[in-house]
Amino acid sequence: MSISGVKALVFDVFGTVVDWRTSIAREAAPLLARYDESIDPVVFADAWRARYQPAMQAVRAGTRPFVRLDVLHRENLDAALRTVGIDPAAVPGTDLDRLNLAWHRLDPWPDAVEGLTRLKQRFVVAPLSNGNIGMMVDIAKRAGLPWDAVLGAEVARAYKPMPEAYLRTADILGLEPGEVCMCAAHNEDLAAARSCGLRTAFFARPTEHGPAQTTDLRAEQDWDVVADDLIDLARRLGA
Questions:
Q1: 3-state SS assignment for residue 189
Q2: How far is CA 234 from CA 15, 97, 102, in A?
Q3: Cα–Cα 20 to 30 A to 162, which of 152, 154, 193, 204?
Q4: What per-residue confidence (pLDDT) applies to 2?
Q5: Half-sphere exposure of 166 toward its Cβ, with a 13 Å CA cutoff?
Q6: Mapping DSSP to helix (H, G, I), strand (E, B) and coil, where does residue 89 land?
Q7: pLDDT at 72 > cutoff 70
Q8: Residue 15: C-alpha distances to residues 10, 126, 171, 186 (Å)
Q9: Tens digit of pLDDT for each residue in 125-140?
Q10: How far apart are CA 90 and CA 32, in angstroms?
């Protein structure tokens, strides 16, 4: 399978390249247990992540200026702690700041490094994430992700699925939208990218949200490439 004319592959990161749910639960567990050993760290991780899209929506809607995802995560952290019965005012600020940086310490899916390394031989590979640059750098260095360029939402000053996120990323890479392929485990992300003229590649992460996940279990449109995972994507693209 080929995607003629494509020069760069850009990737959603949270859920597509890295396993945010398991990683956040692991990072949060020691702090949560200090206050209440009965708290399930996975429940906390889900509560924190549930505030991700609503927080970005205020920026998308123009009701607040653009701020980095680190800022939104820190605001959402207080609310997530309250959800599991912890008063954030009772937690030292240094502990809260360290926990907020858990999003910089996410583990890659098992196929991610090999798949990206192979794809890098034929294409420019870079993140197209709502995460900020510092976060993307830290994740990449810890996980060994071999990006050719490290981009973040503040480059485009827009959060996906705003068209600017896709179009400005292509422009920054010096490419036309059709020369860029968006790779993601989320159908809505790919639909937004396609509407901007980007090519599309899908592979499912059926446990991103846990064993009971009901969304993004399969390709919901005729994407340009549909693969099993990143290694299979590399194989299908001849890398």
A1: helix
A2: 18, 37, 29
A3: 204
A4: 64
A5: 27
A6: helix
A7: yes
A8: 14, 15, 25, 9
A9: 999 999 999 999 999 9
A10: 12
Q: What is the pLDDT of residue 230?
A: 98
Give, for 161, the enclosing helix (H) or strand (E): none
Structure token digits, residue 41: 């760290």
**pTM score:** 0.95
Contacts 24+ apart (CB under 8 A), 201-208: 201/3, 201/9, 201/225, 201/226, 201/227, 201/233, 202/226, 202/227, 203/16, 203/227, 203/228, 203/229, 203/230, 203/232, 203/233, 204/228, 205/15, 205/16, 205/109, 208/15, 208/19, 208/20, 208/21
Backbone angles phi, psi at 182, to 5 degrees: -85, 125
DSSP string of 108-150, one letter each residue: EPTTHHHHHHHHHTTSEEEE--SS-HHHHHHHHHHHT---SS-
Using the structure block, give the residue that is written with the tokens 């890659």.
108
What type of residue is 24?
Answer: I
